[in-house]
Amino acid sequence: MKISELTAGIVKDYCGISDDNSDDIIEKVLLPAAREYIKGYTGLTAEQCDEHEDLSIACMILVNDMFSQRDYTISMHRQISPTVKTILGMYAVNYL
Question: Rounded CA gap, 50 and 66, in Å?
Fold first, then answer.
């Protein structure tokens, strides 16, 4: 599945989110933020991201993390998911 095809319903099913009132926040805030994170991390365009179906898994993991970790303060030890880091690292073209 392409990142652009992800919907709130698909993300909720994958992440086990049962909150019926979360569709708008997922669709309008979290999915766009996760897509932008992926584009920024990898340096790929939206069209290039759609060429790699495993990026949709990384996107859903990011949305789940954004949904479930809504604390104002964060732990100093909090890091990106190893799964997300590995998937995004495979396609990163913006090495410094």
Answer: 21
